[in-house]
Amino acid sequence: MNNINNAFTNGKAFIPFITAGDPSIEITEQLVLQMAEAGADLIELGIPFSDPVAEGEVIQGANIRALSGGVTVDRIFEMVKRIRCKCTVPIAFMTYVNPVFCYGPEKFIRNCKEAGVDGLIIPDLPYEEKGEIMPFCTKYGINLISMIAPTSKNRIRMIAKEAKGFIYCVSSMGVTGVRENIGDEAREMVELVKTVNDIPCAIGFGVSTPEQAVKMTKFADGVIVGSAIVKIVEKYGSECVPYVVEYVRTMKNAIKTM
Amino acid sequence: MVKGRFGIHGGQYIPETLMNAVIELEEAYNRLKDDAEFKEELNSLLMNYAGRPSPLYYAKKMTQDLGGAKVYLKREDLNHTGSHKINNVLGQVLLAKYMGKTRVIAETGAGQHGVATATAAALMGMECEIFMGKEDTDRQALNVFRMKLLGAKVHVVTSGTQTLKDAVNETLREWSRRADDTHYVLGSVMGPHPFPTIVRDFQKVIGCEVRKQILEMEGRLPDALVACVGGGSNAIGLFYDFIEDRDIRLIGCEAAGHGIDTDKNAATITTGTVGIFHGMKSYFCQDEYGQIAPVYSISAGLDYPGVGPEHAYLHDTGRAEYVAVTDNEAVEAFEYLSRIEGIIPAIESAHAVAYARKLAPTMGKEQILVVGLSGRGDKDVAAIARYRGVDIYE
Ligand SMILES: Cc1ncc(COP(=O)(O)O)c(C=O)c1O
What is d(CA B147, CA B119) in angstroms, rounded to the nearest whole number? Predict the structure, then answer.
C-alpha cells in the first residue's frame, strides 16, 4: 500500500502546497516538518520550473524565487531524504513534465522511491500522455496522481477508473490562484468519480479560507491549498514558518471533524 | 502516445483543463477540412482578401550578383498584412467561427501573427485579445498600435523573459480560463496536437503554389528550398508539398543571434536537446535540468526556444537540413535585398536570404533555389536603424 492512502485516514485531508527552495531549501525543510506536525495530511512539494503554465502569478513568483536561489532536482531529493529521517508524512512532488523527462524518467522515479517521495503530480501530462512516465511509476510503486477539471466531463470516468492514490479535482477553470467564489462543478465531479472508483478526491485551485475548505469537504475527501500559503511565504520570507504553521493548523482544525 | 506524432515528436502535453478544447478542435477540423462550403469560403478569402496566389519572383539581379543558382523569391511579403501568417489565421478564425466561437486569442512575437489575427477577427466579427511580451511591444511598437487600430485588445506580458515564449504561456493560461467561447489561434506549427497539423495544412498553400509556378516558369522543380524557422510555419508551408521529392534540398534557417557558440541565440535544432514544452515533444533550448533557456535573436519572430515537432522529425530523419544564421548576417541580408532587388524583407525572412547568399554561389547556373520571403520589413526598419547606430523613433 502506498503511503498516500494514509493521508485520508485522519478525517478530511488538508494538503498544503509549497515550492521547494522558496525562499530556500532550508526553510522548505522546516516548513514540511512543521506543517506535518500542525496537521498537514499530505504535502505537495513543487519542483520549480521556468515556465509553469498551469500556475497563476503567486506560484509563478515562487518558481522564480526558488530557481534564482539555485535549487535543483538533486538538492530537492536530498532534502526529502533528510526529512524522511524524522517524518513519515506523505509527500507528492508537483512539477512539469520537462524536468522529469530531461532528468530521465526512470532515474527520476527511482530517485523518488529512494528518497521517500510517494506520489507525483504533473499538470501537463494528461491521461493520453501518461505512458511517458507511468511504467516507471508502476515499477517503483509511486502514485502518478490524476487530475480532473470542470471541462473534463465525458473524460472523468476514463480517468477515474485508472487513477491511483487520490484524484486532484481542479475546482474551476483557469490557473492556480486564490478565488473568492468556487462554483458547484466540483461537487458534480466528485460524485461522478465515486460512481466508478472508490478513491479519495481532493479539491484544489482557489481554496484559501476555512469556510471554503469546510464547504468543499462536505462532499470531498480533502482540500489542497497552494497560493494562499505561498503568499505567506512570499510576505514573510525566511521568517515565514510560524505563520504558515498557524495557517495550516487553522485549516486542518476547520475540516478535521467534517 | 499515438495522436499527432511526428516520429517521437509532437503529442498533447497540456493540462487536463484544456484537453476537451483540443479534442473538440480536432473533431471540428476533421469534419470541416473537406467540407465544400468551408473550403470555398476559405479559398475565396485567400484569393480576394489576402491576395493569393503570391508571386514567385525571379530575382535576376540577385542571381547575377551571386553567380550561381537561379534565385526565386516566394513573395509572402505581398500578402495582406505583410506576411505568411495570414494564411493560417484566415483558416483558423474561419474554423473557430464554424465552431461557434465568438472570441479569439493569440500570442505574437514580431506582431505579424497578432496583426493577422486582429485583422481576421475584425473581418469575421470576433472579439480579439493578443498577448505580446514586453520586450516585443517595445521593439515592435508600430504593430501594437496596428492591432489596437484593428480593434484588438493587447496584453503586455511581463512574466519570464517577456518575449514570445512567455506570450505563449500567457495565452495558454487565458485559454484555460475561458475555452468555451474562445479559440486560441496558435501562430506557428507548434503546440499540442492538432495545432502542428492544422497550421501546416493552412500554410502548405505556399509550397503548392511554388510547384505550379516553377513548373510554368521553368518547366522543372527547384533544387533547393530555403526558409527561416521560428516555430517553423512558413518553412513547413514551403517544404511540405516537396517532402516526397527526395532530390530537393529543404533547408531551414534558425536564428543564431550573436552566434551558436554564445548563449545569445535561438537556434533550437542546432543547439537544443529533446524536451517537452508548450504541449509538444520536440527540440528546445534548455539546461540539463529541463529549465527552458532564455533565448535571443534580433528577430522577435524567431526568438523562440522551441521548434515545431514536424521539423524536429524532418531533422531526425535527415530529410531537411537546419542551419544557423547570425544577427549580423541577417541584417546584412536585409540591406542587401533592399538594395539589389528593391524588396525590404522582414528581418525573419532576411535569415533565409542570408543563407541563400551563401548557398547560391555553390550551386550550378542551371540549378534553381527558391527562398521563402515570409514577410515584409517595414516593421523592422526602425530596429535595423538602431542596430546600425541611427536613432529613429517610430
Ligand atoms: C515574417 C515572419 N517570418 C517568419 C516568422 C517565424 O514564424 P514561423 O517560423 O512560424 O514561420 C515570423 C513570426 O513572427 C514572421 O513574422
Answer: 8
- From the CB of B345, is ligand 1 less than 6 Å away? no
Positions in chain B whose pLDDT score sits under 50: 1
Query: Exposed, middle or buried: residue B322 (CB in 10 Å: 0-12, 13-18, 19+)?
Result: buried
Homologous superfamily in CATH for domain A12-249: Aldolase class I (3.20.20.70)
Contact A53 B11 (CB under 8 A): no
For residue A71 the three cell numbers come to 535549487
Task: Spell out the residues 6+ positions from residue A104 whose beta carbon is closer than 8 angstroms to its own.
Answer: none
The pLDDT tens digits for A206-237 are 899 999 999 999 999 999 999 999 999 999 99
Q: Catalytic: which of B26, B107, B129, B135?
A: B107
Q: Tell me which chain A residues have a C-beta less than 8 angstroms from the C-beta of B12.
A: 126, 128-129
Confidence of residue A185 (pLDDT cuts 50, 70, 90): confident
Phi/psi region, residue B160 (left: phi>0; alpha: psi -120 to 50; beta: rest), is left
* Residue B198: φ, ψ to 5°: -60, -45
pTM listed for this prediction: 0.97
The b-or-e profile of B28-67 (16+ CB within 10 A means b, else e) is bbeebbeeeebeeebeebbeebbebbbbbbebeebbeebe
Residue A75 near residue A98 (C-beta atoms within 8 A): no
Q: Where are the alpha helices (DSSP H) in B178-281?
A: 195-203, 205-218, 233-239, 268-271
ipTM: 0.96
B233 is catalytic: no
Q: Which residue from B74, B146, B344, B374 has its CB within 8 A of the most atoms of ligand 1, so it is best to mutate?
A: B374
Tell me the β-bridge partners of A44.
A17, A92
Q: What is the whole-number distance in angstroms between the Cα of residue B301 and the centre of ligand 1? A: 5
Question: Three cell numbers at A44?
Answer: 505537495
Phi-psi category of A220—alpha, beta or left, where left has phi over 0 and alpha has psi -120 to 50? beta
Q: Which amino acid is at A9?
A: T
Grid coordinates in use for A174? 483557469
* DSSP sequence for B325-340: EEHHHHHHHHHHHHHH
> Which one of the listed residues B54, B282, B297, B374 is annotated catalytic?
B374
